[in-house]
């Protein structure tokens, strides 16, 4: 593949990793900080943990997608 194609693939992988980092940061820090101010009626710790699990899973999937993009020849 040409150098331009490789550079485009690296930039796309970097972009996906940046999005993954943002998803994990917003989901985990935002949820934990909001919960630390005091639980609102109707929001349980289990719901906060569910949000954390979803954001970590989404971030991991995006990261693995970026790695697969880089490994593709």
Any overview of this molecule?
The structure is a single chain. The protein is mainly alpha-helical and 73 residues long. It contains two helices and no strands. Helix 1 runs antiparallel to helix 2. The longest helix is centred in the N-terminal third of the chain and has 34 residues. It is elongated and about 55 Å long. The chain starts with a helix and ends with a helix.
Give a quick precis of the structure.
This protein is 84% helix and 0% strand. The chain is built from two helices and no strands.
Give the termini separation: 8 Å
Shape by Cα distribution: elongated
Provide a count of the helices: 2
pLDDT averaged over residues: 88
Poorly predicted residue ranges: none
Q: Strand fraction band?
A: under 5%
Number of strands: 0
What is the N-to-C order of secondary-structure elements (H for helix, E for strand)?
HH
Major sheet description: none
| Class from secondary-structure proportions | mainly alpha
As a percent range, the share of helical residues equals: over 70%
Tell me the radius of gyration. 17 Å
Question: What tags apply to this protein structure?
Answer:
73 residues; mainly alpha; 2 helices; 84% helix; membrane
Walk me through the topology:
Elements: H1 3-36, H2 45-71
């Amino acid at each position: 593949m040409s150098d331009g194609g490789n550079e485009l693939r690296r930039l796309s992988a970097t972009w996906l990793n940046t999005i993954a980092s943002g998803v994990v940061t917003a989901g985990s820090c935002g949820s934990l900080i909001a919960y630390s101010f005091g639980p609102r009626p109707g929001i349980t710790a289990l719901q906060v943990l569910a949000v954390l699990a979803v954001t970590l899973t989404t971030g991991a999937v995006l990261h693995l997608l970026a790695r697969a993009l880089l490994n593709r020849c």
